[in-house]
Every structure is written in C-alpha cells, then in structure tokens.
Amino acid sequence: MSGANQTPNPLCGRLAPSPTGALHLGNARTFLITWLSIRSRNGKLIYRLEDLDHPKVKAGAAEEAMQDLKWLGLDWDEGPDIGGPLKPYVQSARIPAYRAALDRLIASGQVYACICSRRDVETAQSAPQDGEDGLYYPGTCRDRFKDYQQAQAALSPDRLPAWRFAAGSESTSFADGFHGAQTSVAKEDVGDFAIARHPDGAGYMLGVVVDDAAMGVTEILRGDDLLATTHRQILLQSALGLPTPEYIHVPLVVGPDGRRLAKRHGDTRIAEFRDQGISPSRIVGLLASWCGWASPGEELMPSDLIQRFSLDAIPHHPIVLPEDLHLVS
Predict the structure, then answer these.
(1) Core-most of 20, 59, 155, 158, by most CB within 10 Å?
(2) CB 101 within 8 Å of CB 206
C-alpha cells in the first residue's frame, strides 16, 4: 500500500502546538519552517491546539504558546483565537469526530481494545526493536475481548484500555519532502500500534489523522522524530478513506549530548528570552541561521525570510545547541 498523496488545493498547512510544556528554540525553529513553507507559496495556515495528552497538559501552556508564536511574528488564517469555518480548533472539543472515526474502524474490525501496560509490552520483547518507542507489539490482545467494555472490566477503575490498530502485512510508502522515499511494513516494524487511550478514540494518532482531513491540510511539516509515525498515519488514512497529505520532516535541534532539547540543556524557552528583553528579530535571526538562510548575528523577522526560504538550504543533520549560546547583549 502506498500513500495516496491526494492533495487537493488550496495549499494548507498547520501549526499544531501541544500544551505539554513551554515553546523552546527547537519547537520555534520547526514552526518557523512550517510558516515559511506555506507563506512563501501563498497558502493557508491553520492553528490547531493538540491538547489530548491530558496527563502532561500544563496549565497556561496553551496561552503561552500562542503568545510566543505571535511575538516571533508568526500568524495564521484560522484558529481558536480568530475562529474560522472549521471550528473548533482545539482537539479536546473535537472528540465526537474521533468517536465517529473510531466507530468506523470498529465496524470494519480494524481496531481492538488492549489492556497491556508498557511493562507488559517490554516483557514480551524477544529482541530489541526499532518500533514505537523502541517496542514491538505482537498482538497479545487480538481476539482476547469481545468488546471495549469487557476489556475495561479486566482493568482496575483507574486504568483505561488502549485502542490498537490491527496491522496487516501491506507496506506503506511515501516521498518525504526532505528525506526522500520512505517504506515500511507496520506488522514487521511496530506490530499492532496504539491509536488512542480513551473510550471515544481521543488520542494523538487518530486525532491528527481525522483533524488534518477535516481541515483540508495538504502539507504537514514537523520534526523528523515523527518520520516513522507517518506510516501508521497513512494506514489510518487508508482505513478511513481519507487523503494523504504531503509530509516534510526536518531535523531537530538537540543539546550537546545529542538528545532533544530539555531543561538539562539550560533555559531555551521563548518566553524566557522575551522576559529578558531580547528582541524577536534576534531569535528569528538565530533560527534562520540554523536553517542556512541567514548569517550569524543577522536580525530578521519571518516576513524578511519569505524570499530566502529553501528546504534545500536546511542541514540534513540535527542542529546542536551551542554550549556558549548567549543572546543577551
């Protein structure tokens, strides 16, 4: 099976922050690239808040992310703050749409309820895998329960079953706009994969597939830590009869230790730089230099970069945060 790449016009992208933490330099760089990719071709941008990861959602993070992006000079055409014809633009308010999609998958026999914990899955590993979170799921709960309610009854009241997609032997392929041709067989690479841990299917994997189709998103640009995830999303798109957008995955900004940015690498929050009185043009200029569009020290705003934008200029390796990064004059 290949991604259908049925990408209707007009060109539409999305900025989709999750309120699980503060926006940092790495997030901001990816959002800047997303914004420029769409704006440089006169496309439409949607702002969608992806707040389904409930245990990790932090109070005030949603408002701060929007404030940070606006401060950096990024804008959008539709979103929770300005509305639009496809509202709501907050995932926690879109659960009925996920339930409808889940019902279709249940009716076709392509998903099932699973009570396995992460420890259960880790224990079942026969060898190291490159699958979801480094784990392979062999289908332990396939045909184990007649329905979700029976699976729920097998758990303590404080736990919920997961919904898993029953992976077949078909392959998925797509042409990534940055990394080129990609092919995978989910059954071999990750096994049956989780799409949600919510009775109504409200989870990242199912939610983004449903919302991208409903909102007419034709291009998804994000970090390449999600490159493998795309194959699972293509399987869901095919199962639901939804179009496959174009995908572009760009390298991350990492710390000197090679790991994605975190508190251990110092305070790289956009809000912190703003509070220190650093100008947004200085931050955007730094991010642009990491993308090959500006010289070190240039101060620019996103609109200044539209004519400079080029995916080809972006390095094909992670950007390592300098240990001596100093932005305060």
Answers:
(1) 20
(2) yes
CA distance 37 to 43: 9
109 has a pLDDT exceeding 50 = yes
**Within a domain: 214:** no
pTM for this prediction: 0.92
Please give the Cα distance from 28 to 17 (Å, whole number): 10
SS3 content of the chain, % helix, strand, coil (to 5): 35, 15, 50
CATH of the domain at 119: 3.90.800.10
Q: Is 8 left (phi over 0), alpha (psi -120 to 50) or beta?
A: beta
Determine the structural domain holding residue 297 and report its residue range: 12-93+251-320
Identify the CA nearest to 181 among candidates 232, 125, 230. 230
Q: Both 202 and 102 in a single domain?
A: yes
Q: What is the pLDDT of residues 137-168, one digit of tens each?
A: 999 999 999 999 999 999 999 899 999 999 99
Report residue 96 as tokens. Answer: 């009925």
- How many domains, in total, are found in the chain? 2
